[in-house]
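Appendix C. Worked example: Putative transcriptional regulator
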Amino acid sequence: MAEGERRAAGALEAEVMAVLQRAGRPLNAAEVQALLASELAYTTVVTILSRMHGKGLLTRAKEGRAFRYAPVSDEPGLVARSMHRTMAAEADREAVLARFVDTLSDQDERLLRELLDGR
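Step 2, the predicted output written as structure tokens:
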């Protein structure tokens, strides 16, 4: 990234989440910082981990003076949580679901029907 250039919204969170998911175990901020592709200040890593925890994306456990962070779910689970939060914020859920279904491919529509029938 060029100097002075800003990341796209959510890009840093996505990068941190990818590091945590690849690790397969809880990491502290220093470990996350060491594994990130971009060079970030330790305080920046701590801030993003704290924000992600506040959003419910990460769990954390105190270890000594630091926290160890882990994703609350795998990637599909996180996407599903995001979809659920979006739906919960909408007044006209029927319209949102109708628009969503209208944009599904035939294959995805069949898959959704199979999943719903299996409930």
